[in-house]
């Protein structure tokens, strides 16, 4: 059973990792306990939960970023390079952020006809999601170094 994430992984394929597997590496951080929400978002929006969790870790610095702490924004959503804090969207909770971003990724990045659709892989999303050309590699590195299956 394949659970690793690569830049060519199809993000419409669910991870076999459980919510407990997703919770393990974030225990003791402000991302603790979000495994269930990542798994729900995977089910509801058909986006790999390992990708969603790894993206949150990367973008929020394990939940330590100012955006994560002050705006519950664990994905850097709408944090544009010219004014990242001012432009970033605030959320009532980190769970709300996960659901909002998963819905947005589903609609705009992972669905043909979406504004930023370029395919269904981390590499395809990275073309428009981040200004860092190594973004997809970094998300995958977080996934593969931080998480491990319980099966």
Fold and architecture overview:
- The chain is mainly α and 151 residues long.
- The chain has a domain at 49-146: Lysozyme, CATH 1.10.530.
- It has helices at residues 19-23, 35-45, 49-60, 66-71, 84-87, 94-109, 122-129, 135-146.
- Helix 2 (35-45) packs across helix 3, helix 2 (35-45) packs parallel to helix 6 (94-109) and helix 3 (49-60) crosses helix 8.
- The longest helix has 16 residues, at 94-109.
Average pLDDT reading: 94
Q: Can you tell me the residue ranges where pLDDT is under 50 for at least 5 consecutive residues?
A: none
Helical stretch count?
A: 8
**Sheet having the most strands:** none
Question: Looking at the structure, what is the overall shape?
Answer: globular
- Structural class by SSE content: mainly alpha
Q: What is the alpha-carbon Rg in Å?
A: 14 Å
Extended strand count: 0
Tags for this entry?
151 residues; mainly alpha; Lysozyme; 49% helix
